[in-house]
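Protein in question quoted for reference:
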Amino acid sequence: MHQTICASRNLVLLGLLLTLPLMGCSDPGPASGQVEGVVTLDGQPLPNAELAFYPQEGRASQGVTDESGHYRLMFTYDSPGCIPGNHEVMITTRRPESDVEGAAMLPELVPKKYRKRGELKATVEPGANEINFDLSK
């Protein structure tokens, strides 16, 4: 009888151990918000700027502007999107010119207030979102 109780207790503990990682995840859901837009600085398109959208919970999404200042957020390397909800946004141009180690850094063109969390905010809805940023020095 004692062995049966111990075996049952072990099965319950094993079940808990297997489900705890699932319960601990604070994933608010899929990255169902598709976000793109344009970033300008003093009215001019801002190329090569990196954007990061930080949700209240969950994984951030990132994007890089092209020569016309247009960006599209990516949730992972090969998956576009963003978690819906309120986000703090950071924008910077200071990053390596290439993926090669020791590559020169691009100059920082973005004023400091936009490079830290709190100044820029955005709300992402499920589906398509156009979110533009008009920055000024």
Q: What stands out?
A: The radius of gyration is 21 Å. Residues 4-28 have pLDDT under 50 and may be disordered. The chain is about 15% helix and 35% strand.
